[in-house]
Amino acid sequence: MSNAEQEVEPDPVAVGNGVDTNSRRYQRELSADDHNHHHHDPVKIGTITRTLPMLLAFVEGPDRHPAGEGSQEVLRGKLRLLEADSAEELSARLVSINSEENVILVAFKTFEEIWKFTTYYTMGFLGHCMENLLLDQDFWLSSMDQKDVGIEISIQEETLNLMYKGILMQEGSFFASCSSTQMFDSSTSGSDLYLEQGDIALFEPPFLGSGWTVLSLGDGARGTKPKPALEPVIPFHHGKPACDFLCQFGSCVATVEYDAGGPDELSLEQGDRIIIVGLLVSCFEWFTGRLERTGEVGLVRTTLVKPADDTLRESADIFLDKEERLFFNLREEQIKEETIALLKKISQNDVGSVYKLDGSQGNMDAHHQAELKRKIEEILQEVKEKVPCATVTTNGTLEDHSESSKTILPSGSHFTIHPVEEGTPTNQEKLLPLLSFLDGSDYKPDFGTLYGQSPELLLATFNGHSDNIDELVAYLGIAREMARKKRLHWSQSRLCLLLGKLCSGSSKFSQARVYFEEALSIPRDGFMDMLMLASIYVNLAVIYLMQKNTEKYFALSERIAALLMGIPDCVSTVEKDSEVLKFILKKAVLAHNKMAEARACFLLAKLHWRRGEGTDAVPFLERLLVLSAEPPGVRSVTPSHGYLSLGRLYSQLSLPHLCVSSARRATMHPSARLANCLSGMGLVLENTARLYGIRKQEVAIPAQVAPYLSRSLSFTWELDGVGGNGDHTLSQALTLCLSQLFQKHRMLGRAVCSMHTLIDHHCGPSSSLGATSSPERNSTLVWLAWLHICNSQPEVSLDVLDSVLASMPEHCTTQQEDLRRAAESYQAAINVCEEFEDRANWAVVQANLGMLCLKAGAKGLAEGHLTEAVALFSELGGEEHEVNFITVLLELGQHCVNQRLLERGKIYFEWALLMAIKSNHLDTQCIIYNEHQLTLLATRGDRGQEGEVLETISQLYLSLETERARRSALDYTKRSLGIFIDLGRKEKEAYAWLQAGKIYHMLGQTELVDLYVQLVELLLQLKLYGEAVEYAQAALDISVTLGNSLNERVAFHRLATLYHCLGQFELAEHYYLKTLSLCPTPLEFDEETLYYVRVYQTLGDIIFYDLKDPYDAAGYYHLALAAAMDLGNKKSQLQLCTRLASIYHNFLVDRELSLFFYQKARAFASDLNVRRINLSPDQNFSSMSQYKSNRVSIQETTTK
Fold first, then answer.
1. CA gap 828, 817 in Å, rounded
2. How many Å apart are CA 826 and CA 812, to the nearest integer?
3. Residues with Cβ < 8 Å from 1025, sequence gap 6 or more?
4. Residues with Cβ within 8 Å of residue 1076, at least 6 apart in sequence
5. Helix (H, G, I), strand (E, B) or coil at 1095
6. Distance between CA 51 and CA 1111 in Å, rounded?
7. Which one of 203, 452, 506, 1178 is most buried, by most CB atoms within 10 A?
8. Please, which contacts does 1166-1169 make with residues 24 or more away whose CB atoms are closer than 8 Å?
9. What is the pLDDT of residue 1159?
10. Does residue 617 carry a pLDDT above 70?
11. Closest CA to 335 of 384, 288, 396
């Protein structure tokens, strides 16, 4: 799914709201109350099931057991985000999402939709697509240590089958298998139709009271039956074995004597032993065999043989000997080189060349420091020659086998046409080279090229003509006649084949048929060139099909099937007509022969792959992989290679979610090897832009590649003692990329650990780091040092850097409070920058040295270095330096103010402010100006502007992104909120509440729920319902996470209120019921009972006035009346009895109940001095008018 997205299936469609009476009732059942367990029964309209529940669950471990409650809650939270708008992300047709039950309801309208959905579910793609759709990037990194963790999709297969049957019945006739042996009344003059269990036939549903009609696929007989026992065939399949064995190899024995009907058949004597060439498939009329006593090869009728004792064995392999089993080549060395180049490109870092301003100090941690230092020194002491890393410029890593089929004939196999006249003695001399080349019973590679060439390419094989096909036909015709006279049968046969192909290319089909039939009828000992025989068969079958000669077409297709099941590479001869392969597939399906079906799918997938028809190849490759996975399974393509091939096709078709899912299956399958993992990772990186909308020119490493990097590394470690430096270089590139992913997602410990693993594996005599070039080795070690700096381990970092570069960055000695060594390092860095005129880094180092001097109390030196830094920064262009420049200006300005140099300080502050305005960086150091402005406003008493300045200061503190700054921001926000409440500025107050809520969320404090609830109430008053929904949902999510049922109940009520105001009545009903399910039972206080009265009355109003369902509305009014009677509230009882009397009188037409409630209402009206009761059918009014009159009462009684 995509997504689960719409992959190779019908285009995404608009999502319906499902608002009919039945589906709305079902949604209300899913909302449910506190007393019912939720079973996701499908919605049925008539006899057709309309919706399918998909249950999502977090699972882990090889047995796919459910994960802990915490993981399940994360999944529920992600589903809540999809509830508002998810139509473009999910496969099929989305009906609704129930995040509390982890259920997504989908529907299907066409056969193709349910076909693709079923396929992706069977192949396990739905769970992978939902992971890509729902889970954060951090999941892929954090789950690497957990075994087989992910999302699993469960569906009710019985429900899916019902939907499938319903769609088939809507579309008319369909294929189905008889689930029992049964008799059908004949609809013709013949005898009754008898079908056995498992027979496949064409069924047509009843029409206008008639029974089911059935068409037998065996003999075309028709029959009828009122209620046949049938089971529709699987969507992909949309004939009976001739003998008891299915798909076998070995040898067999002829049961009768048989005289060959042509040179392509074998003549048999009873008891002859026949060696099966390739596979004997029982559902086909012929197979290819070799007569043991003579060695001849030809076609044998399947019905004429029986198994030989202990020699005929069941085959689990669909491939033939020496047959190419792959769709494309995986050149491992080339893939390694290209992967290394790609990883180096996307994992470039600047930590060794770009300085940074000094940051806050961290805690020193020297764990394993001595051991690490020893290993690094050992690596650096290795003296080996530089091994250049291979670079590549090609983009592809996979080479199709189809390229091999596009070779041209060798130069020696071209022929020149000489003018010849029939009957002249010079013809023999001129035609002799051609006749000699085409003669011979055995197959030659050059023949294969001729057999597969189109008429246009055949013209290019012969020189000396004016590109006129008729001229070439005349020349070959004379050659054919000469071959016939000289009894050169093989030359004559091949010339007939060429003439037939040329005539077919000129649309002279009858003439072409004559040539092809002549090629088959020429007397000879037998066919040794089976590819020529296959080519004749296929070309002739195409003509039979075009001329609607179906009898001969099917008979010839049976012979082609025998060759395809026995002769490798025969698929190249059927490129012109894939219908023959589809006929073979249908025969296999009708015979329930999964081995033959798998081979037919393989041949069709390979044919379309060779022809570049990715869309057509996909369903056959999908089915082949499904058959391979079904027990007991067929031995077909390696699953890893198959999924990788499928991923390539999905990528070509711009289907990123399915492509990534296929790549993951390919990489994680036990059959995967290093090349598969690297190719799968390439597919993920290739589809990153499509998955996340990243521009292609931007280099990005998605976290999804982490499992691929890890698995590839495990392969390289295994090959460490066997492979050369190429594997070491690859492992280094993989580790760097993986550690950068960890560092990017702030998992510094794991980033450091991955680099230490690299050091451990590459330490010693076979050290790869020592074997790599000096820049690469140093870059790797500098990255390791940088990770230790980021991880607050300065001593470890300094040990690494001291071993590599003495003048490397300044942070290490500063964090150890070794100011003298830090100053020396800064000065060394300044000298290097000055020598190489690196002004950007020069400015940064000067600023750091200045701040170091301030820390040491050397104020004069500090001012000099800071001033020099300002001068250098002012000469630089580009926005990347502006943040550092502003920081230095503010630091220098503050220094001047402290030194009582106010005018100079003012200049630096104003300069910083102008730079901030110019660069659009609201640097938090500008807080100084705002605080000064705040003091002036407090003096003037301008409360409105004072609140706005407080807002600004809060934003500035938040931009510092530290906990201390956030607490300061919260203080300023609270002060601004108090001012806006005093001034009655509702909109400003709302946004202040929102700001406070966000800060509480950043600080991890539970006050956030209360703030969001208050904000929702304020937005309700402002009628900003759409914005209020977001915060009400956030309050609900946090309440559920914290397990606070009281806040959860309030949040549900707020959501119900908002959806009621927005006119989304089903959702309002859902959340009101959720609220009631959380109320305590039994009710203890009158306020709780009154709340029941108000909510049930509101629900009744929604159902009656807005959804026009008086029956369900009466149910809610009854519940409200029961609560009102417990409370003794006569006014509510009067209103409810009046409503019920009106409904029973005007809509449900129950005079007795109408009179009963009318009399009760009259009694209450008398007690309350109400003079008139209105029973008019006022259903055209909206429930909103009723809701507004009750809302204040509901709020007062909400249990909070």
1. 18
2. 11
3. 1019, 1058, 1061, 1062
4. 33, 34, 1092, 1095, 1096
5. helix
6. 24
7. 203
8. 1167/1130, 1168/1130, 1168/1131, 1168/1134
9. 80
10. yes
11. 396
Query: Which DSSP state fits 1104?
Result: I
Nearest to 501 by CA among 452, 544, 466: 452
Q: Report the distance separating Cα 31 and Cα 1077, nearest Å.
A: 10
Report the C-alpha gap between 196 and 1076 in whole angstroms: 57
Indicate the length of the chain as a whole number: 1200
Lowest mean pLDDT among 301-310, 602-611, 845-854: 301-310
3-state secondary structure of 32: coil
- Going by C-beta distance under 8 Å and a sequence separation of 6 or more, which residues neighbour residue 856? 819
Q: Which amino acid is at 593?
A: N
624/752 Cα distance (integer angstroms)? 44
Cβ(853)–Cβ(358) below 8 Å: no
Quick check: 598 and 318 in contact, CB under 8 A?
A: yes
* Least confident among 972-976, 1081-1085, 1136-1140: 1081-1085
DSSP codes joined into one string, 914-959? HHHHHHT---GGGHHHHHHHHHHHHHHT-HHHHHHHHHHHHHHHHT
pLDDT at 921: 58
Q: From the CB of residue 449, how many other CB atoms can be counted at a distance below 10 Å?
A: 18
Question: Quick check: 514 pLDDT over 90?
Answer: yes
- Helix 594-610 to helix 614-629 angle, to the nearest 10 degrees? 150
Q: What is the mean pLDDT of the chain?
A: 74
Nearest to 1073 by CA among 23, 31, 98: 31
Residue 297: C-alpha distances to residues 26, 312, 847 (Å): 67, 18, 88
- 96 bridge partner residues: 105
Q: Coil, helix or strand for 1062?
A: coil
Q: Among positive and negative, which fits the CA dihedral 450, 452, 454, 457?
A: negative
Give the pairing of strands 65-66 and 52-60. Answer: antiparallel
CA distance 520 to 264: 8
Signed CA dihedral, 200, 201, 206, 207: sign only: positive
Residue type for 946, please?
E
Written as six digits, the tokens of 795 are: 């001593």
Question: Which pLDDT value is given to residue 246?
Answer: 46
Cα separation, 235 vs 117, in Å, equals 10
At position 1129, the amino acid (one-letter code) is N
Of 719, 725, 288, the C-alpha closest to 530 is: 288
CA atoms within 13 Å, Cβ hemisphere of 146: 18
Longest dimension (CA), the chain: 131
Structural tokens at position 264: 């392509």
Q: Are 465 and 471 in contact (CB under 8 A)?
A: yes
**What count of Cα atoms within 13 Å lies in the side-chain half-sphere of residue 105?**
23
Within 10 angstroms of residue 1046's Cβ, the number of other Cβ atoms is 12
Label the pairing between strands 462-463 and 415-416: parallel
Confidence of residue 402 (pLDDT cuts 50, 70, 90): very low
Q: In what order do the strands lie in the sheet with 247-249?
A: 280-281, 247-249, 313-314
| Dihedral of alpha carbons 307, 310, 314, 315, sign | negative
Structure token digits, residue 938: 């407090």
Residues 532 and 496: beta-carbon distance below 8 Å: no
CB 661 within 8 A of CB 635: no
**Nearest of 290, 294, 261 to residue 278 by alpha carbon:** 290
Q: 48 φ, ψ to 5°?
A: -110, 125
Please tell me whether the peptide bond between 235 and the residue prior to it is cis, using omega within 30 degrees of 0: no
| Gyration radius of the chain over CA positions | 41
User: Does residue 37 have a pLDDT over 50?
Assistant: no
**Side chain identity at residue 481, one-letter code:** E
Please state, in angstroms and rounded to a whole number, the distance separating the CA atoms of residues 59 and 147.
10
Q: How many CB atoms lie under 10 A from the CB of residue 125?
A: 29
